[in-house]
């Protein structure tokens, strides 16, 4: 009996071990399955729809579906899945598109049709480009100047990330003559939005206007910097993003970047 009991016991232990091993294999397979595909924010970025950060916001707003089902942050896109943004199917565009656009005042740098429940005039509808492109960052509605548009998500990501330190140059006009001392303060950095702005290049144009080069992109940064020093911005124009300038562009018009501009742009982004 003892021998027989021992045999039964070993069989039971072996059976239990086999069940555990089987369960472990299933968990591993499920884990591996979950890690296949591409995260939704990366998919949209690579498709040129928007930056990863903006994709995360769109997911939170319920604007994205995969196979007609709402997605959550971190959802993965697998081969054959149908991804839609605002009901429109997303497909990766093979052609690389880079545009420089002179944005007039009143145009909103978004692809949405409305903002805060109100109809808006968005930049994509305004230029009416025949293929899907998206703005690289934002230029507030009351400002004008250079805006880049592309379908290359990797480029959008690198230009938008402030840690890369890419330059953006602006012309600024304020409501009264600005003191040299205040120009120096702007260049050194001022406290806004619970931080201090990074040191930047600033030089005078005339009594009430100046140029400024930023390497970060805080919300309404230049306007807030001027407000901190008791000036009100009356005119704000972006003249340059990295190696791309506004030169030769008429307000409300766009042009394709030249092959040389694209090569230089990509080279700077690789630094």
Helix and strand sequence = HEHHEEEEEEEEHEEHEHEEEEHEEEH
> Tally of extended strands?
19
Q: Assess the beta-strand content as a share of residues.
A: 25-35%
User: How would you characterize the largest beta sheet?
Assistant: 9 strands, mixed
State the shape: globular
Question: What Rg do the Cα atoms give?
Answer: 26 Å
**Low-pLDDT segments, ≥5 res:** none
The number of helical segments is 8
Mean pLDDT: 85
Which structural class is indicated by helix and strand composition?
alpha+beta
What does this structure look like?
With 271 residues, the protein is of the alpha+beta class. It is built from 8 helices and 19 strands. It has helices at residues 2-34, 40-46, 52-60, 123-127, 153-160, 180-188, 221-228, 259-269, and strands spanning 38-39, 64-66, 69-70, 76-77, 83-85, 88-89, 98-103, 114-115, 118-119, 134-135, 144-150, 168-174, 191-192, 195-196, 201-206, 209-214, 233-241, 244-245, 254-256. Strands 7, 10, 11, 12, 15, 16, 17, 18 and 19 form a 9-stranded mixed beta sheet that branches. Strands 3-2-5-6 form a 4-stranded antiparallel beta sheet, with no helix packed on it. It has a two-stranded antiparallel ribbon with strand order 1-4. A hairpin with an 8-residue loop joins strand 10 and strand 11. The protein is globular.
